Predict the 3D structure of the following.
Amino acid sequence: MEKYPLCPNCVKPMTLARVIPGSVKLLSLNTFGCERCNVWLTEAVQYDLPAR
Ligand SMILES: [Zn+2]
């Protein structure tokens, strides 16, 4: 279950447009977009994986 960020303009959940697996361990970049406002947002997401 993932939470999508809200558009700062229309305050509706943004669409997950793209996921870029990060080169850093346990990090990926998720790009969210709001098509009606043409607002784009990239978030670094850290996965909760047990350490060893
Ligand atoms: Zn919007």
In short: Strands lie at 15-21, 27-34, 39-46. The first strand starts at residue 15 and ends at 21.
